[in-house]
Design goal:
- The protein is mainly alpha-helical.
- The protein contains 4 helices and no strands.
- Helix 2 packs across helix 3.
- It is globular.
- The protein starts with 23 loop residues before the first helix and ends in a 23-residue tail after the last helix.
Length: 118
């Protein structure tokens, strides 16, 4: 069950998967970056985390990973939960096609769920 408020995630033993949009795969990615609890995201920069993930794994990740990091960090700042794709326009406005955020010819690595069809 996902948290409804960021305060539900502040306990020292809270799981990363309590955060909306964070499933097992992204939780593993965050742990690779030294993020072990939701409160570890407070004050972090989504773009820095995204680039660090790409560097540590040796591959470019789909920009939706950056969107998801933005959503998770914003939630931990106290914003209402929102699907990761609500951050796509903001990411494009802030970072454009920032180097390393565009899918590569070798194929992006996608994490997270797709937006609903419709």
């Amino acid at each position: 069950m996902k948290a409804l408020r960021h305060t539900d995630c502040l306990h020292a033993t809270a799981s990363l998967e309590l955060i909306p949009n964070i499933g097992p795969a992204l939780a593993e990615d965050l742990e690779l970056l030294g993020i072990h609890t939701p409160r570890d995201l407070i004050g972090r920069d989504a773009l820095v985390l995204y680039h660090e993930l790409c560097a540590r794994t040796g591959q470019r990740h789909d920009p939706c990973v950056l969107d998801t990091f933005m959503a998770a960090i914003d939630f931990m700042r106290g914003a209402p939960a929102a699907p990761w794709w609500h951050y796509t326009a903001q990411r494009k406005l802030l970072y454009g096609q920032a180097r390393g955020t565009e899918p590569g010819a070798d194929g992006p690595r996608r994490r997270g769920s797709a937006p609903p069809a419709g």
